[in-house]
Design goal:
Blueprint (H helix, E strand, L loop, with lengths): L2 E7 L4 E7 L5 E8 L6 E7 L2 E7 L4 H14 L9 E8 L10 E2 L2 H8 L9 H14 L4 E6 L9 H4 L5 H7 L8 H15 L5 E7 L3 E7 L2 E5 L21 H10 L3 H10 L2 H6 L5 H9 L3 H25 L4 E5 H6 L1 H9 L19 E3 L8 E5 L3 H15 L2
Parallel strand pairs: 1-6, 6-8, 9-12, 12-14
Antiparallel strand pairs: 1-2, 2-3, 3-4, 4-5, 7-8, 9-10, 10-11, 13-14
Helix pairs in contact: 1-3, 6-14, 7-8, 10-11
The structure holds adenosine-5'-diphosphate.
Length: 396
């Protein structure tokens, strides 16, 4: 029976999920991390088995070799040719890839031309595709992009008020990210309500976080921008700030611009304000112990989200659904309640008891709320699998 492998190749990690192509059932999932460092971890589970090994992985090629060898060794396939398709998560598709695409030589070359738009992510995503092409030459490789879902934004939404030539010459514009997650959630709302017609604001709140305004199944705006640094406050990223701060701080602290941008990416957000942690649970625990910086960080976090929700209500000219997803959005009843409590004047009423339930997908608004509130567990791998399968089916 044929199999489809979904992979997310990061700078020092490889996440994977293997599916049965026809039934779409998950067969194996796991992660390798610390690739290129000493003592990498290789964790995976299948059936009732859970494996956690320490291995030596000098590079991604060794990691993918080990993954394929292990799939053979545990007899999930009897021949690697059973893996007919590999779906790759690719961070940036630029303006070239508006939908998922088969990575033949021509598309791979086109993908390489936009590596400068995501220098930390795309080159390693490309590397992953190249390694799979070499090790499994008969399989189809499909790229599913974080940016594609937002390619429906209109120019008034995706352009920055900067010299227009910067867009024309260098493609400086809003791209948006987390598109695979926003697409999954938007499709779930469509399935739950039996219609595409709705005005939905999705709050993807994980380490990285973004909001998306979805009108009739189409993304019309999103909070991340040219890079994932823009938008709401995140675990370690600052989100939207005045760009003139860069110049001011380079002079005050004698930093380079790269150092300042690095601080915006890695030492800001919940971590920067609380001084405690980028992990939401740690900050909440400290706030519960009356730590003033943790309390302030959470107040700012909520405030910046409600501002964005307000502006997306204007962009959508209303709102039918408010949805929470990703690590914090799915799991923290606290943050959902805090955000919704700020929005009661708009007819948004959360049901406090429903909000405490642990189901993966649930309506959590009161019956009299004019806006339906949901929490929905996201599933980016499923979207990558389905999009890859659709392309594989089309050409086989
Ligand atoms: P990413 O995929 O961007 O790395 P996740 O979507 O896994 O991030 O989200 C990670 C965040 O979710 C962390 O801040 C973590 O504290 C938070 N989180 C995970 N589980 C819970 C929980 N039960 N309650 C509150 N926050 C949680």
């Amino acid at each position: 029976m044929s199999k489809l492998l979904v992979v997310n190749t990061g700078s020092s990690s490889l996440k994977f999920k293997l599916y049965n192509t026809n039934s779409q059932a998950e067969i194996l999932e796991g992660v390798m991390d610390r690739i290129g460092l000493q003592d990498s971890n290789f964790k995976y589970r299948f059936d009732i088995h859970k494996v956690d090994e320490v291995v030596q992985l000098a590079n991604h090629e060794e990691a993918i070799h080990l993954l394929l060898d292990s799939i053979l060794r545990i007899k999930i396939v009897s021949d690697l040719a059973e893996i007919v398709c590999i779906g790759h998560r690719v961070v940036h598709g630029g303006e070239i890839f508006k939908t998922s695409a088969i990575m033949d030589e021509e598309n791979l070359e086109r993908l390489k031309t936009i590596s400068d738009l995501a220098p930390l992510h795309n080159p390693i995503n490309v590397k992953g595709i190249e390694i799979f092409k070499k090790l499994l030459p008969s399989a189809m490789n499909v790229a599913v992009f974080d940016t594609s879902f937002h390619q429906t934004l209109e120019p008034k939404a995706f352009l920055y008020p900067l010299p227009y030539t910067w867009y024309e010459h260098y493609k400086v514009r809003k791209y948006g990210f987390h598109g695979t997650s926003h697409k999954y959630v938007s499709k779930r709302i469509e399935a739950i309500q039996g219609t595409k017609e709705s005005k939905t604001i999705i709050c993807h709140l994980g380490n990285g976080a973004s909001l998306c305004a979805v009108k009739n199944g189409v993304s019309i705006d999103t909070s991340m921008g040219f890079t994932p640094l823009d938008g709401i406050m995140m675990g370690t990223r600052c989100g939207s700030i005045d760009p003139a701060i860069i110049n001011f701080i380079t002079q005050k602290l004698n930093y380079t611009e790269e150092q300042v941008i690095d601080i915006f990416n890695r030492e800001s957000g919940l971590l920067g304000v609380s001084g405690i942690s980028s992990d939401f649970r740690d900050v909440l625990a400290a706030a519960n112990q009356d730590d003033p910086q943790a309390i302030l960080a959470l107040e700012m976090y909520v405030y910046r989200i409600i501002l964005m929700i307000g502006s997306y209500m204007c962009a959508l000219q209303g709102i039918d659904n408010l949805v929470f997803t990703a690590g914090i959005g799915e799991n923290s009843s606290y943050i959902r309640e805090k955000i919704c409590n700020e929005l009661t004047f708009m007819g948004i009423h959360i049901d406090k008891d429903q909000n405490l339930h642990r189901e993966k997908e649930m309506l959590i608004s009161k019956a009299d709320s004019t806006v339906k509130i949901y929490k929905i567990a996201t599933n980016e791998e499923l979207v990558i699998m389905q999009e890859s399968k659709a392309l594989w089916d089309e050409f086989n």
